[in-house]
Write a structure and sequence with these properties.
Length: 507
């Protein structure tokens, strides 16, 4: 299963903060060295470990820039952001290689990550000529009513490492096109990806102070940024534990917030399903991005009539997956993000076998191939004889691990699928239109897929989940998406009757 690394030495990127249009280091001069997760002895980037001084300066810059930027006509803001999207597209291969080296996802996925950023840029640039309001009839004569959209103010954008160009662009493009100014704090594990993206926004002509980049740890820069009194709104993607803390703070201080958090996604395979199609979808959902996606499917619920057929074909496909360096075109699955992620996955192997008493079908450990010893690799892992009460059925592992559970019928499959605290993405494989429509109605998730993987959201649709997965408005496009996060609605009533008309039937 493992393959030769095909290591390619890359130049270390010296990251800097962008504050008020200037590239600066942290005042403390402290830095963080980020290794290539495939080759832990190779440093990909060195970034500032910023703290309060940098956050204070960035927030101040965003506040100063807000009046002029928010008053710039939205189509003009969009023209700048369209240029940024064009620059990202021109630099796609360079950025894709960086995503592979700094984050570790395989080449096709790394390039897809950047393509998603490009797509979001072009889509949100179009919002500069949309931002539609509504008109509505009044109950009174000679009176008009309309709604408009206005920016919220200063936004803190806090993003994870698993989509180091796509998710920042999910947030930066809409925040800016709607007239907000931004302080962006990426994961310290992918600071270079954030730095290179922000450089392109800067090159496109985003005015100073409108977009500020502050790198560092969540405990230092991130926590202080989120709680900063100068911040009007927070958009966060990350764990449910951290999201809960952010939500509590924003609730107490009545700040706008959008929280995209954990997931424990499910694929249901019915007895009438195209089993080969379901196998392909399940392999991609479980092991794409080495299982490090909030939409990854770590639960597969299979109808008892096709259980053995599905399990045997799925296991055969999983065992063919090749581990290795992300930029090797033969690699199917890259490393985990860091050593802590490997140890967490190892911990769940003990939980699964000693506590849950699940049956291990394959994987369950680090690869033995010495060519992979310097990377954070873990074998693709499959368990069976898993019940809904087991921890590996309920808890998010965020690694290349999935569990197969048997169901006796459709109703039991839906019951098992919903029996968790998360609700992001779910999929059902069936040729029965009744099953498909009932599943779409009954599954307690923000995203439902029919006869395809739990992975694959498109940027023109709102992205987010239910329960402990999502809180606040959704990411991306469409009704209920980013426009709800980054704008406030204002109702404007114009009375041209020449008298004070009293509503609600008051004479």
């Amino acid at each position: 299963m493992p393959q030769k690394g095909n290591k390619k030495k890359t130049k270390t990127i010296q990251v800097k903060n962008l504050i008020n249009g200037k590239w600066v280091a942290a005042k403390s001069r402290k830095t963080y060295k980020r290794e290539n997760p495939a080759f832990a002895n190779q440093i990909v980037s060195i970034a500032p470990l910023s703290g309060k001084p940098e956050v204070d300066a960035a927030v101040k810059a965003a506040q100063k820039a807000f009046p002029a930027w928010s008053e710039t006509p939205a189509p003009k803001r969009a023209e700048i952001l369209f240029k940024a999207a064009e620059l990202i597209e021109k630099n796609k291969s360079r950025l894709g290689d960086l995503v592979a080296n700094e984050m570790g996802k395989v080449k096709k996925e790394a390039y897809g990550d950047v393509q998603e950023a490009i797509d979001m840029g072009y889509y949100m640039a179009g919002e500069g000529r949309r931002m539609f309001g509504q008109t509505m009839p009044s109950e009174l004569p000679n009176k008009s009513i309309r709604t408009i959209r206005q920016p919220v103010g200063i936004f803190a954008l806090v993003t994870p490492w698993n989509f180091p160009t796509a998710i920042p662009c999910w947030k930066i493009f809409p925040a800016l096109v709607y007239g907000n100014t931004v302080v962006f704090k990426p994961s310290k594990y992918t600071s270079a990806c954030a730095y290179e993206i922000v450089k392109l926004f800067h090159q496109a002509g985003v005015p100073k102070g409108v977009l500020n980049l502050v790198t560092g740890s969540g405990e230092e820069a991130g926590d202080y940024l989120i709680k900063h009194p100068g911040i009007d709104g927070v958009a966060f993607t990350g764990s449910s534990n951290v999201g809960r803390i952010i939500g509590e703070h924003c609730g107490k201080n009545l700040k706008n917030h959008s929280l995209e958090m954990g997931g424990k996604n499910v694929i249901i395979v019915m007895d009438d399903a195209d089993v080969d199609l379901a196998v392909d979808g399940a392999v991609w959902a479980a092991f794409g991005t080495t299982g490090q996606r909030c939409t990854a499917s770590s639960r597969i619920i299979v109808h008892q009539k096709v259980y053995k057929q599905f399990r045997d074909k799925f296991l055969k496909a999983v065992k063919k997956l090749k581990l290795g360096y992300a930029l090797n075109p033969k690699t199917d699955m890259g490393p985990l993000i860091n050593e802590d992620a490997v140890k967490k996955t190892e911990h769940y192997m003990e939980v699964a076998q000693k506590h849950d008493k699940a049956k291990l079908l394959c994987g369950g450990k680090r690869p033995s191939d010495p060519k992979l010893k310097n990377g954070y690799y873990f074998l693709p892992t499959v368990f069976e004889e898993v019940t809904p009460k087991m921890r590996i059925f309920c808890e998010e592992i965020f690694g290349p691990v999935t569990a197969i559970t048997k169901a006796k019928d459709f109703n039991q499959a839906i019951e098992y699928a919903n029996n968790i605290e998360y609700g992001l993405s779910a999929s059902i494989f069936t040729t029965n239109v009744n099953y498909a429509e009932k599943a779409a109605e009954k599954l307690e998730t923000g995203l439902v897929y029919i006869n395809t993987s739990t992975i694959g959201a498109e940027i023109q649709t709102p992205f987010g989940g239910l329960k402990n997965t999502g809180n606040g408005h959704r990411d991306a496009g469409g009704d209920g998406g980013a426009i709800e996060t980054y704008t406030e609605m204002k109702v404007i009533s114009v009375d041209y009757s020449g008298s004070i008309q009293k509503a609600q039937g008051i004479e």
